[in-house]
Write a structure and sequence with these properties.
The chain is of the alpha+beta class. It has 3 domains: 169 residues, Jelly Rolls; 454 residues, Alpha/alpha barrel (Glycosyltransferase); 55 residues, no CATH class. The chain contains 23 helices and 18 strands. Strands 1, 5, 7, 8, 9 and 11 form a 6-stranded mixed beta sheet that branches. α5 runs parallel beside α9 and α16 packs across α19. It binds calcium ion (CA) (4 copies) and zinc ion.
């Protein structure tokens, strides 16, 4: 695995907002109102301007304002929903080999939003860019500016704005208000698939078994192919204290224990049970859920460093590092401590307010669900630790990238802070604890500025914070508006709604958007998103033009080559010869199913991860509940979970027993094109692990995997 190619892993494009303080801006304010009142010119200065963009800025932006439409609310009231800008670029250079591009945007209060619209610039000339901003905070009364940013350029840059205007042109295609339901957008591809969300939920929990870490994996993982690993995490130093930070879960196909996605995954899992308890209780899955959730909680509690008074002074937000971990390319059980990397702690010198708050939220929701007083105490301690960070640092110094930069670089902590405050409040209210007023005040201090601005992810909780409001001061109706806006502007020709962050994890974001729609309905007693979510999930299960199912092991159409080193069972990228089936894990997938190669080497589309499966769990649980309430008799009867015996068989099946094309004539069992000692190692592993290879590794063809086969491979 090449560590360099992981540098931008799961990085999201809206980080451009961060660099705006250094942007160059000029403003043109003369307003011409056309006869058609829905079209308003907002730019009078069409002359060309030249800039010498210094190397540390590499972008330039122009801003406009409109006296008639000074806020997003004024736009929404008048039916204005689209910004159109024509930019003529007469000279530019790309910055550091990166792709130059143009982004139309709106800016209001502290917010900067472009709905991820980006147009590549590959030549000089004229470009027209459009931004449909109807889903962005339509009730905001903060001062509004419109603009375009030209990014990834270095000077000299010369361009003019030929035209900039506002229109109501997308009215016809944009969705209605929060009152009308979002119908199914997918097509029927006539595929014979069972749409069983109970089985889907049951299997999706097993990703957590595949990713268990510690000295008790052997006895706890549902997969026989997982064993104890990284046991040396039990002795980690922090300021003279020795901490046992073994346990928990690997992040993805790699083995680092990253803070943000673990906090997200446990938050999502706890919310799935909180909102849809029947999905676990009616299907016999509560025990498995408990085993997974308790492991997260136990790990987070041990990651919390207490002083003699029992107050939290630090929180370990990461064990292991991407660099050394990605230069190691074998199963977790064999990873030496020399390729583990360091552990990282949030404390007064390195506040990681987003991670600490998101973890506090997970613990608070778990405490609320299970009446777990210890989890509540730890949630409270972590929230207090975060409040200490906030009171002694300026707002822009409250996130650290130490150890996780380039992998999970958080951009905002206020969302996580409010999510934690909401659930601490709910726990206190349920248990008559007077501390609830402090949590209410914390919530109140931030909630009105937290507009839904991106799908729910490890970096952005603005959708869920506006679903679980404590009063009417949030942006509840904008949750529904945001989801409908995303469906209208981000749906492919097959009806699948995609979010794409540099190509990573489309299916995960799709499930997270489903999850938000289904939770919104559950909280508000509405029925806006059930049919739409069902169509999306059925697409994921194989109802698409390529007939590909993105959930490993769910059916015969399922992806067979997830990027997951433990499942590889061997070193390298054993495409086609993945040894173990990581049943239940959802791969990243692609924007269009026709672009999905099902290859271990294409990790942007094939990797699996904690946050991916947690999003899947919420959506699957929500769809189970929705179907049992609203489905036809046929749909309801398709909802059943597998009995323990058949589940065990399925879970423990090895992919090499299936119809994989083997390349064993040359002794190249991991399909990396060379026959070498790695292939011998596969034979040796098969001898000791009782995996039956259907011919794989049987060099002398006598039907038995034995030492002589390894020797024959070595003789090649
Ligand atoms: Ca053990
Ligand atoms: Ca955040
Ligand atoms: Ca090989
Ligand atoms: Ca043999
Ligand atoms: Zn491990």
């Amino acid at each position: 695995m090449n560590s360099e190619v992981f540098v931008l892993k799961r990085f999201i494009k809206n980080v451009f907002a961060l660099i705006l303080s250094t942007a160059i801006a000029f403003s043109s304010v003369s307003i011409y109102t056309y006869a058609d009142t829905l079209t308003e010119n907002i730019c009078s200065d069409t002359s060309s301007h030249s800039y010498d963009i210094s190397s540390d800025i590499h972008n330039s932006e122009v801003r406009f304002s409109s006296a008639n439409y000074p806020t997003l609310k004024a736009c929404a009231d008048a039916g204005i929903n689209t910004l159109v800008v024509k930019v003529n670029i007469s000279s530019y250079q790309s910055y550091n080999g990166q792709q130059p591009g143009i982004m139309p945007f709106v800016s209001f209060g502290e917010h900067w939003k472009n709905n991820d619209v980006w147009v590549n610039v590959n030549n000089t000339g004229s470009y027209e860019v459009k931004l449909d901003f109807s889903s962005i905070a339509p009730s905001s009364t903060e001062t509004l500016q419109f603009g375009v940013q030209i990014a990834n350029v270095s000077g000299p840059l010369t361009y003019s704005i030929e035209q900039a205007y506002l229109t109501g042109e997308s009215n016809g295609s944009s969705s209605g208000g929060s009152g009308s339901s979002q119908g199914n957008t997918t097509h029927d591809y006539d595929v014979d698939i069972e749409y069983n969300y109970a089985k889907l939920l049951q299997e999706s929990l097993y990703l957590f078994d595949a990713n268990m870490c510690g000295n008790d994996v052997n006895e706890n993982s549902g997969f026989t192919w997982r064993n104890d690993c990284h046991t040396y995490d039990s002795s980690i130093q922090y300021n003279g204290k020795t901490l046992d930070l073994s346990g928990g879960y690997h992040d993805a196909g790699d083995h680092v224990k990253f803070g943000l996605p673990a906090a997200y995954a446990s938050t999502a899992l706890a919310l799935s049970y909180c909102q849809f308890p029947e999905a676990y209780e009616n299907t016999g899955l509560k025990n498995h859920y408990d085993r997974i959730m308790n492991r997260f909680v136990d790990y987070f509690e041990r990651c919390t460093v207490l002083d003699d008074n029992g107050d939290a002074i630090a929180f370990c937000y990461q064990v292991g590092e991407g660099g050394p971990d990605h230069s190691y390319s074998d199963i977790p059980e064999n990873q030496p401590s020399s390729q583990r990397g360091n552990a990282f702690f949030a404390d007064s010198s390195k506040p990681a307010t987003d991670i600490v708050c998101q973890t506090a939220a997970a613990l608070a929701i778990h405490a609320y669900n299970e009446n777990d007083t210890t989890a509540y105490e730890y949630s409270k301690k972590l929230f207090k630790l975060a409040e200490g960070f906030i009171s002694s640092n300026s707002a822009d110094k409250l996130i650290t990238y130490d150890g996780c930069g380039g992998f999970y670089s958080g951009t905002k902590w206020e969302d996580d802070y409010v999510l934690a405050a909401e659930w601490l409040y709910k726990y206190c209210e349920k248990n008559n604890i007077s501390d609830k007023s402090a949590y209410y005040n914390a919530y109140k201090s931030k909630i009105s500025s937290l507009y839904p601005g991106w799908v729910w992810s490890w970096d952005n909780a603005t959708l869920p914070v506006n679903i679980f409001l404590l009063d009417s001061s949030g942006n509840s109706s904008e949750v529904a508006n945001y989801i409908k806006g995303a469906v209208s502007s981000r749906t492919n020709s097959e009806g699948y709604t995609y979010f794409d962050s540099e190509g990573w994890g489309c299916a995960r974001y799709n499930c997270a958007l489903q999850a938000c729609g289904l939770m919104y309905d559950a909280v508000n007693g509405t029925d806006l998103f059930g049919e739409w979510a069902k169509g999306q999930m059925n697409y994921i299960l194989g109802n698409n033009s390529k007939h590909i199912c993105y959930v490993v092991g769910y059916n015969d159409l399922a992806a067979k080559n997830p990027h997951h080193r433990a499942a590889f069972g061997t070193s390298g990228f054993p495409n086609g010869n993945v040894m173990h089936s990581a049943v239940g894990s959802i791969v990243g997938g692609s924007i269009n199913s026709t672009d999905f190669p099902d290859s271990t080497a294409d990790y942007k589309t094939s990797e699996v991860a904690l946050d991916y499966n947690a999003s899947l769990c919420v959506a699957a649980a929500g769809l189970y509940s929705y179907t049992m309430k609203n489905g036809s008799e046929e749909e309801k009867s398709a909802q059943y979970f597998l009995d323990a015996a058949s589940l065990t068989d399925e879970m423990r099946q090895s992919v090499v027993e299936k119809d994989i094309t083997l390349n064993d004539a040359k002794g190249d069992f991991n399909n990396d094109g060379i026959s070498d000692s790695k292939d011998t190692a596969i034979i040796l592993k098969m001898i000791t692990s009782a995996i039956k290879g259907n011919g794989l590794g049987d060099m002398n063809g006598n039907g038995i995997i034995e030492l002589i086969d390894a020797i024959k491979r070595e003789e090649l």
